Amino acid sequence: MKQPWIHKAKTDWLFIIGPSFFVLALVFLFQDYITKIENEYSFYTWLFLIVFIDVAHVYATLFKTYFVKDEFQKKKKLLILLPIICFAISLILFSFGSLVFWSFLAYIAVFHFIRQQYGFMRLYARTEEKTRISVFLDNLTIYSVTVYPMLFWFFSSNRKFNWFVENEFFHFENQGVLEILFWIYIAILILYAVRTVILSIKNQFFNVPKNSIIVGTALSWYFGIVYFNDDLIFTLLNVISHGMPYMALIYFKEIKNRTNYRSGILSFLNGYKAVFIYVAILVLIAFTEEFFWEFFVWNENISVSSFDFSGWQFLVVPLLSVPQFTHYLLDGFIWKTKKTI
Q1: Which terminus in the chain has less CB density within 10 A, N or C?
Q2: DSSP H helical ranges for 68-166
Q3: Separation between Cα atoms, residue 122 and residue 138, nearest integer Å
Q4: Could you tell me which of 332, 306, 336, 316 has the C-alpha nearest to residue 114?
Q5: pLDDT of residue 305
Q6: What are the residue ranges of helices labelled H in 251-312?
């Protein structure tokens, strides 16, 4: 039985599975320098992590939807209405206060991040013989290694990092709840590990990418949220482990493996320079969006104006958040497949 790589072993390891392990290794190697890097190179870490990866990966969705003529025609109503709905919801939420809006968006973002790991796990399990028990245990494990760290965040003392803004999540410190959750978490991991070993021996096959994505997810979420309490470490593990695999998935499945782009915006992406053009487009759009955020909202990393747009935040923030909000929801539709179990 062949390993169920999405593209091939080398590229899957480099861009989809490997980032979690690679970033965590860097964190441990350069742990003593993290604070220095965070303080002295804050602009460059923001530019690389937030703009070139986090914001850029949002626009990778364009290459599976709006930039693909047949896909756009197939899902035309969804692709036109969803951004409008997202804008309307954002306007309503922001009218109740900026914290209400950012809290809502943070919970949606967490759900989206969790579901992406579930999606990768299911992709790598696609060739396995499935039973209700195997599917249930796979799902239970991937959700445990992502949900437990978030519950730790909610029930532990304040963390030194945020998803978007301070006080965005429900918080109730309770050590008793944390201890119960920890042992449930450990029990699920042990159950999964024991069953995986038994099945691997029985079937004479070990699913390397599926188990690697589960282990990588467990490590990046546990160390990024639970073990370390550092803003840059959280951002490194959170952003790179999520954004890079998504951009790679889009490229491998929607650009490199497709040969039917004879016309339209993607027609020039069939050549050997496709990956550079793809990345350049994402970076350009991402930088443009983030420039608008800096100009109209944050005024933190790029000093561009002395104008005061505070009176327009009720309109500007919901409008600028449309691509991100749409990406979170759209991903729930464009990757759906028919269930076999």
Answers
A1: C
A2: 69-74, 76-95, 98-124, 132-155
A3: 9
A4: 332
A5: 58
A6: 274-293
